[in-house]
Amino acid sequence: MGSHDLAVRWADALDGVVAPTLTRTQIEALLAGLCEQLLAALRGDGGLDCARVAAAALVAANYRDETAVSRTVSVICRDMVRAAVETPDPRRDGALPDPERVRERAIDVAAEFAAGFTAALRAAALSEQETTVAAALSAMREAQAQRQLSQARFSAIFAGASVGIGTIDVRTGQVVDVNAAMAEMFGAPAESITGMQVADVLGPINIGPAYAQFQQLLEGGIDRFRLETGYTHPSGYRTAIDLSMSAVRDERGQIRFLIGVAVDITERKALSDQLWHDAHHDNLTGLANRVLFFDRLAHATPSIGLCYLDLDGFKEINDAYGHTVGDRVLQAVAERLREVAEPGGLAARLGGDEFIVLIEKCRDDTGLQILSRRLLDALSDPIAIAGHTISVGASIGTALVDEPPAAIDDLMHTVDTAMYRNKSARSRPGLHTRRKR
Prior knowledge:
Number of helices: 16
Oligomer: single chain
Low-confidence stretches: 146-153, 424-437
Helix content: 40-55%
Strand order of the largest sheet: 2-1-5-4-3
Order of helices and strands: HHHHHHEEHHHHEEEHHEHHEEHEEEHE
Largest sheet: 5 strands, antiparallel
Shape: globular
Strand content: 15-25%
Distance between the termini: 49 Å
């Protein structure tokens, strides 16, 4: 399957998500170029940056719904993986890539795409917001110099803006006026907000983070500030708000009034949080994935305890009962490991039937041995699935790290070696614990 065929499948998957800014022919041409880069990344011939480039290209083409992420990830992990493993590589004497390695790369590519989509979506939204704010401020400055001509323009922007806009008297701290969007955001009629102290409008919980910056603004130390805060709507639900305050000065440089712009980012923040979660968690088991695990490992507080597990005979389970049952076995294993690791630890799925548990501030080898035995004991009871009773065995390797890992690859090799020695010897955990300093 070539890049053009993959582009057509990708375009079909995205069909109906939004009304894109490009024609179907233009979309397929764009996606075909992106497919070539993504295929190279899956084969190991290219870096992961292409996934972020692909995400930014989709956002630029107006694909801004989270559905575009899930459908693209599906194309990467299904269609592109199949194309990558079935296409001989002439640079390697026509040899086919290792399927398992391609699947592992697909997880990393998909995670980078989701992270890139979040970043591109936020950048686009902030750019549009900045344009709206700039237009409002520009109109207000013109209103000072050309009152009659610009007043109508500012009033139109003020009243019709989709973001909340309000003006504040710097002498009294009272709200002078708010537009309809601001009134709706705060769940009160505009006339009831007018005349209130801005601190009372926002509430003590929300004004707290902004108080010091308000003071600097009034004293002339800064001309503008921006922060993300929250607001509890009168109906009870909590919203996330992007709030910016700017000082409007007269021709002598004196502050005439403040203008506040508030944008309800509740849905955007929820989408961002969901995309972050999807990019850092395994979609089958819900455990942390490789991306999140290695990030936690790099920033963990020593001593760090690691327990690396590999299921014994999992291929035979898939062959005997099918991949659907195999997936449910992995989900059951993941839940048992999570129950042992939490709270305080992190259980992750590295890929296939490989899992790892990370514990920070692990005191000594004895504590690590106890943890490894608890993990194996958690897997000792058979798993009942679809009328079958399935026993799952596992081999485990452990490592205790006294300092932050400078070479994570070496550390992972240590636990991997310990695990395979245990698998070979069919021993209980703890016989091959390695200590890294």
